Amino acid sequence: MSAMQAQLRTDYQSPQYTIEQLHLDFKLDEHATIVTAVSQVKQLVAATPQLVLDGEHMKLLSVAIDGEVLAQSRYRVIDNQLIIDVDLASFELTVITEIDPANNTALEGLYKSGGAFCTQCEAQGFRRITFFLDRPDVLAKYTTRVEADKAQYPYLLSNGNKIDSGDLDGGRHFAVWQDPFPKPSYLFALVAGDFDLLDDTFITRSGRKVALELFVDRGNLHRGEHAMASLKRAMKWDEERFNLEYDLDIYMIVAVDFFNMGAMENKGLNVFNSKAVLADPQTATDDEYHRIESIIGHEYFHNWTGNRVTCRDWFQLSLKEGLTVFRDQEFSSDLGSPVVNRIDAVNVMRTHQFAEDAGPMAHPIRPEQVLEMNNFYTVTVYDKGSEVIRMMHTLLGEARFQQGMALYFERHDGQAVTCDDFVAAMEDASGVDLTQFRLWYSQSGTPVVKAIESYDADKQQYTLTLTQNTPATPDQTEKQPLHIPVAIELLDSEGKGIELKRDGKVVANILNFVEAEQSWVFDQVSGPVVASLFENFSAPIKLEQNISSQQLALIVANSSSDFSRYDAGQRLFTSEIFAIADAEAERASDTLINALRKVLLDPTRDPALVALMLSLPAESALAQDRNDIDVETIHLTRRAVLAQIGLELEDELLARYRECIASSYQQDAAAVGRRALKNACLFLLAIAGKATTQELCGQQFAQADNMTDRLAALNAMNQAQLPIVKDALATFESQWHQDALVMDKWFSQVAMAPNANVLADIEKAMAHPMFDIANPNRVRALIGAFASGNRNQFHALDGSGYRFLTDNLVKLNTINPQCAARIITPLLGWKELDGERQALIKAQLQRLADLPDLSRDLYEKVTKSLA
Ligand code: B3K
Ligand code: ZN
Question: Does the keyword Zinc apply (predicted)?
């Protein structure tokens, strides 16, 4: 099969052979690591005359069966597969390969990150280490022997427990690790390097003592403490909320600087991007503290949802990712503010997932077709996947949902299973019929729900009619009605909540919306009402409801749900921005300004929520609702509304700003919330552009005792393009030029400046000694931030933004295809733009399509986009 041909979900075939035991031996060397893999192979389908193993980017040194080296005529390597002529019920296979970790810039398989060796095997990186049945439904017990130079690599790590170690001749040493749990190859890990070690212990609920070890670059020990504390919280939470206990005697986390994603859940040995581990108040923002806790939790939770029960094939990825994102969101929510966490998750859906659904890469949470698996670690599989789990949770309730989880583990512990298996467990444990609900797994696209409301004063009845329609997507033209849970709240004209009644009885506030069009009648409604629909984003849909600014303001002021209040505020912002863009209004209405004033002055509200309520929808989220409005108009209109708020609420913003200043730095929820509000006020004041705020920003930047405040001041100056921003950027650079993670914030500030010279500054930043195009963090911080975070400049009509991104994609195509395929996203959805920009982007995509060595990662996205 050609390397550029997609695989289909429906083509799944169970394996003909399996490998039950694997002994790996690594003789580590920068350019010539020797890997000896000894597999106990079992034939599952009798009379299968060939064993076919996956492998790429390696030198095959020898193949032996039951100790006997095979003649070259017995095997061949064709199209990244090793085909061995053999037809035995069971045998021992020894494959010896040589690999070059130091030249592995794709960061898949075994590679070097700075001075350390490390691995990344999901999804198909193990096949860059040895020839193997590299598929998640082949589960083997691993032992791993690692040998390396002792001075350079004092720590030799792999999955499970260390069972042997010792010194060897020539300054080398070795360690042997044994993982008692069968696992798929994608969960294999190896790390060798010199680190500082932070260690701790956790006593599980049943009294077992688990050693916790966090490995960080030398000198960074204190920056690991937050991650370690987060890990202990995650372990405890999973016992309490999901009844799940850790299963090995040791849990290790290694932080590395070169990593394509946030982190990886390898059994007993997580490998993390250092950005997702290291934090102290001087270098990390509150958002980063939060993100670290959530990623540490996510990877830990995979130990059960992913590792103990894994995926049968990669089309089932959401089985572990959607579920584990749901679990990490619940963790953050239980430990922090539910509404703030919910808002964060919903913003990811609206800004990124809806865009993916509207673009050329649209796919269901369980994809039907995959060319490059790495392209499907998406907001759809992860975040929409989590929303689908959340809807099941809503339909079943916590108690029955947990019964479903228990049944899932009872049935499938130690197995590789499908999304259907998960839903079946939920259904069987709860008795709730999920037949129609399963469509959420197979149907792509964002459903549009329209609400039609009527009130009958004589009958005292309110009628809600909903229609649902999922627009066709490139991958799928026919769509069917979905089972949509609709959470609803009715407010009377004073803003008081009304009990929902039908036939005189109180009814639940969750409606089961299952038809293309469906109506609900509520009785004993004594006057006209305002309906707040999809409370807490009860389904991942777009709502169309005829609702006035006054009605939205009523919800903002009165809803019993903080989420609904926030959400109505966002809808109010959106409709006013569009009214200005359409020249139906000159400025935001008094209704909006007054609603915000009330929010701002309400002392009973959580400052963290108030901060979010002062934030406008992102330009890209606005663009999705109205792709007929030009990029620049959206940018300028949104900015004008920000400035108007800053000017009209100047006194209130200043007062709250001052009130939120802390006398000393704390890292607890209350302090974080106050910082968020303070900095939201500062931002609006800066955009409003009064001379006094320049001073305020300058002061905060100079005097801040933590990175959150310092960066917020810098960002406000930068977005407002205050004259002092130049000096501030220089000061920041001279203070942090040796710290790569902090410099990433500087790179992003450079990239996001709303100024027509930004590209020249970015080119200069690329020459900074800290910039390295081979490091994905740097690439995302500078090039990625420009393309996705500086919408107006990226889409400049001279095409310079598109050309710049493409120039770098050409480089990354050979250096790190996975990284390239991630930052190309802003180019893919050109169909939403005007004709002039469409032509400019298409020319750049064509440049990529014409590359002689276009990677599979980019090929899949570029061809879909051009199709
Ligand atoms: N499972 C990994 C992601 C692997 C990505 C491969 N391209 C991290 C996570 O979701 O926890
Ligand atoms: Zn995950």
Answer: yes
